[in-house]
Every structure is written in structure tokens, then in C-alpha cells.
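re: ur question from earlier - yeah i can do the single chain one, its not a big deal. heres the input i used so u can compare w yours
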Amino acid sequence: MALLNQLYKIHFFELPAKYTTRYSVFLRDGGIVATSALRMNDAASTSVCFEVDKYEKCVAYSRDAPCELENLVNSVFDDLEKRVGDK
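and the output i got, formated as C-alpha cells:
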């Protein structure tokens, strides 16, 4: 339950499914505003998934994810390493 509460706290269920695309806005000649999307398909990424019954929410991220998500992932892995080390 503590992990589920942390997921809600960082708004995990509202996050987009992928943070592997970098968007930018720029000004073209003539004053036209344009956008571009750079897809980083070959960049290393981490996927975080939550699944209960038929519901599943996954978020794939690389370096541009919210720091709260990365911190949560690190704390979960640290906790798992401690539990395995205690056995």
C-alpha cells in the first residue's frame, strides 16, 4: 500500500506512456511558430508498470522523466537490494 500511495503522490497514473520523445517549439522565418519531435528510439530507457487484474499502466522513460519517478524507482530497487542482502 505504501508503494501505491507513492505512485498516487507523484501522479504516476496521469503520466504519459512514453518519455522517450523530446518535443521542442521554435520560430520559423516569417514569425511562424512550429514544433518538432525527436524520437529517441535507441536511447536506453526504463519501464515502470503497475498491473492489477485487467488494469495496466506503464511509463517508459529515459533521462527526461520527472525526477520523482526516477527517485521512486531508485528507492524500490534499494529496498529490494536490502531485502535480498538480509537473507
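The first helix runs from residue 2 to 9. not sure if urs matches, ping me
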